[in-house]
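in:
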């Protein structure tokens, strides 16, 4: 009984109630508010059955998609959209208003000061962060670390929220969460309880899992969505050049859904990606590999990180694209099963300088 009470106390300490964090405005308007604008409760229920739980999310759907919902005619959809426009503003706003909205962005620590600096403070909400690289380059290890650091209070560089994990490759290991939670001084059981997990087996299943997230995120304070990996099932379910166009269209729809989730619920999206051999790389390129998914995936990611293997257990992370920070290269890291932390060595092999003395490289470790 005493152990149960202690566990409940720790869980409450780890995940502070949303009202106690800030006096910030609600980030979304519940779909139920449509009833106060003359929309039938039965029609609202049909929207919820289709995975639409907020007015913000409703405005992110085309009328063509909405009329595809059973029981909603074009006239009803027009009336619903008019009501939603009165509740949420999807028109023009000033640059100052955009700047004010950007203050709601939460940056979640990766557990490494060097990597946080590279990312401008950590993995940020309202954005998609993509990490690509070959197998065992550290992408999934970072995902496991973020599962824990997201649950830290905001004053400890956490997100103070829950985590949704969609696994397409069978790489999620709860036993790896335990030592990471202990490293951050958190109760492993409570941390695991705040992670919802789903294993996807087809690209359609993967997309349906994303649709089902709206109900949970509208009711509970989520701060991170992990998709590991975003491309794996598309490479299995579509074969040959004959299906390439269809594959890229379906992938674009999936990525569009991820962007909408990030903006609708103010969550960070961290997705891993695989690499493919680049036959056009030539003999003068030391690492002729590029991320899978083509331009469709490249345009969707706000932040792109490349992971590659270094010497021994070291791993190197290169910042390919960050919208607000420009492009630089960062670190090498050492890989084990428990956590990410900074490497005590700050020597840069590319210029022979210590970090902070003219080079953007730095070392951090999985130790």
């Amino acid at each position: 009984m005493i152990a149960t009470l202690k566990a409940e106390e720790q869980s409450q300490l780890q995940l502070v109630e949303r009202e106690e964090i800030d006096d910030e405005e609600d980030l979304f308007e519940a779909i139920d508010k449509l009833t106060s604008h003359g929309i039938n409760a039965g029609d609202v229920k049909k929207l919820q059955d289709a995975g639409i739980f907020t007015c913000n999310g409703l405005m992110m759907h085309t009328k063509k998609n909405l009329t595809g919902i059973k029981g909603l005619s074009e006239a009803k959809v027009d009336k619903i959209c008019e009501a939603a426009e009165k509740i949420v503003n999807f028109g023009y706003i000033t640059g100052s208003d955009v700047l004010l909205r950007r203050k709601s962005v939460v940056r979640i620590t990766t557990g490494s000061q060097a990597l946080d600096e590279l990312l401008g403070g950590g993995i940020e909400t309202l954005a998609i962060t993509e990490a690509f690289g070959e197998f065992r380059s550290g992408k999934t290890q970072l995902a496991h670390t973020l599962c824990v650091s997201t649950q830290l209070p905001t004053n400890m560089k956490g997100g103070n929220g829950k985590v949704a994990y969609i696994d397409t490759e069978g790489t999620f290991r709860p036993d790896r969460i335990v030592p990471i939670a202990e490293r951050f001084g958190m109760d492993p059981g409570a941390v695991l309880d705040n992670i919802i997990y789903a294993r996807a087996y087809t690209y359609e299943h993967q997309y349906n899992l994303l649709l089902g997230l709206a109900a949970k995120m509208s009711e509970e304070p989520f701060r991170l969505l992990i998709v590991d990996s975003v491309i794996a099932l598309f490479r299995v379910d579509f074969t040959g050049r004959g299906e390439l166009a269809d594959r890229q269209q379906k992938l674009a729809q999936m990525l569009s859904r991820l962007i909408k989730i990030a903006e609708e619920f103010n969550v960070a999206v961290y997705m891993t990606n695989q690499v493919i051999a680049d036959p056009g790389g030539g003999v003068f390129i030391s690492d002729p590999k590029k991320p899978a998914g083509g331009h469709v995936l490249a345009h969707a990611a706000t932040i792109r990180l490349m992971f590659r293997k270094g010497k021994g257990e070291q791993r190197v992370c290169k910042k390919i694209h960050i919208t607000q920070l420009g492009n630089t290269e960062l670190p090498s890291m050492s890989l084990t099963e428990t956590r990410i932390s900074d490497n005590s060595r700050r020597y840069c092999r590319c210029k022979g300088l210590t970090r902070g003395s003219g080079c953007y490289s730095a070392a951090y470790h999985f130790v």
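note: The first helix runs from residue 2 to 14.
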